Amino acid sequence: MAAQITRETLQIIDRLMLQLIDHQAEKVLDMARRIHPGLSSEDIRNPNDFLDLMASGEWNFEDGILSGYKAAHMALRAEMLKLVAD
């Protein structure tokens, strides 16, 4: 027998994912600014424009984690919508 997931539980999961994303986004932006001062969050959406960012393995790793969190969040939201619709 499967346990019932409440709407409140889904909201907690969603908030947690948003917190993880926000924290990682701040980390990625801070790291980017140490590598290339003055960058904005919009700038790092196109890192190919900044060769020093692209050359940083550490920055690319952290940016990849951020992308993974975002992808996981969207996958979880899709599943949550299915559960709520049922």
How would you portray this structure in words?
There is one protein chain. The protein is 72% helix and 0% strand. The chain has helices at residues 7-35, 51-54, 57-85. It is built from three helices and no strands. It has one domain (18-85). 7% of the residues are buried. The chain is elongated and about 50 Å long. It starts with 6 loop residues before the first helix and ends with a helix. It is mainly alpha-helical and 86 residues long.
Which key terms come to mind for this protein?
86 residues, 3 helices, 72% helix
**Count of separate structural domains:** 1
Number of helices: 3
- Average per-residue pLDDT, rounded, comes to 91
Number of strands: 0
Topology as a string of helices (H) and strands (E): HHH
Poorly predicted residue ranges = none
Strand content: under 5%
Radius of gyration, rounded? 17 Å
Secondary-structure-derived class? mainly alpha
Summarize the topology:
Layout: H1 7-35, H2 51-54, H3 57-85
Helix pairs in contact: 1-3
Précis, in short:
The protein is mainly alpha-helical. The chain has one domain (18-85).
